[in-house]
Amino acid sequence: MQIVSISSLKGGVGKSSVVLGLASAALEAQVPTLVVDLDPHGDASTALGVRAAPGQDVGSVLRRPRKGAMASVATVSPWTRHPITPEVRGTRHHAGWQPWGSPTARGPVLDVAPGSAASSHLDHATYRAKDLKRLETALHGLDRYELVLIDCPPTLSALTRMAWAASHMVLSVAEPSLFSVAGTRRTMTALAQFENSRIWAVPDAGVIVNRFRDGSDEQQHRVRELQDLFGQLVVDPVLPDAPAVQQAQGAAWPVHRWPGTAAEDVSRRFSTVLQGMMH
Ligand SMILES: Nc1ncnc2c1ncn2[C@@H]1O[C@H](COP(=O)(O)OP(=O)(O)OP(=O)(O)O)[C@@H](O)[C@H]1O
Ligand SMILES: [Mg+2]
């Protein structure tokens, strides 16, 4: 099982969108996946078509964590029942697009541990070291999933640190803009300090560039700046700014099933990123 946090101390850069794109890629590739929505706003849960029933959310599990308890709130995403329309199948086929997973006898597995305001009791700066084990404990032994994607809030709170402590990999999302580059620096510095405590090594880290607009010199400059700062950690390919991303989210559809060439391009990029993460 690969546990990946999608994080950034800057808000609105696309953390939830990256979680959703990777979940869509995992569904397409038939990688059994659990999305853990740590953000008290629950945006990823909403776009995955899942709403927390009272007491059946991530915050309630983390309040009194037991080994593997996240399974008790995992809810099947309606994305798994989403048909591939002939139009979408046709365009994907034309472009030589292929799902790369092997079909499983279990059928598609995409579950969501829904977020809600209940987790805000942990969204603060102070915590005890043992609090950081809560999420790791709640995910313990959930072997039916090959991938766990954790959507983090945009704060360096106990929630974010709990996510990092449970993760094999932390992806920091950055937009190619001045303030976002500065935000990524802060995130990566915080991550390095966290790892330096030596108790909480995160084996892998990456910076994923989102909302890239090809024609913009300023944006190309910012991507080069990120590459100078973080070298090999910058994930290839970058993710384009594409209205299809917002449209698919608004309709609670996986972007891999959204029609049109822009959705196809962004889907292929998410699949490539996922493939890189799983090896
Ligand atoms: N690649 C993209 N192309 C077009 N729109 C995008 C893209 N990525 C994100 N967006 C849009 O930008 C907005 C912010 O994205 P998102 O909610 O994913 O950010 P976030 O980092 O999770 O925000 P928060 O910090 O509030 O949790 C959303 O409306 C989303 O649809
Ligand atoms: Mg978000």
UniProtKB/TrEMBL annotation:
Matches recorded under SUPFAM superfamilies: P-loop containing nucleoside triphosphate hydrolases (SSF52540)
Residue numbers spanned by region Disordered: 82-101
InterPro entries found in the cross-reference section: CobQ/CobB/MinD/ParA_Nub-bd_dom, DNA_Partitioning_ATPase, P-loop_NTPase
CDD domains membership: ParAB_family (cd02042)
Annotated source species: Kocuria varians
Taxonomic lineage of the native organism: Bacteria, Bacillati, Actinomycetota, Actinomycetes, Micrococcales
Protein name: Chromosome partitioning ATPase
Lineage top rank: taxon: Bacteria
Domain CobQ/CobB/MinD/ParA nucleotide binding stretches: 5-249
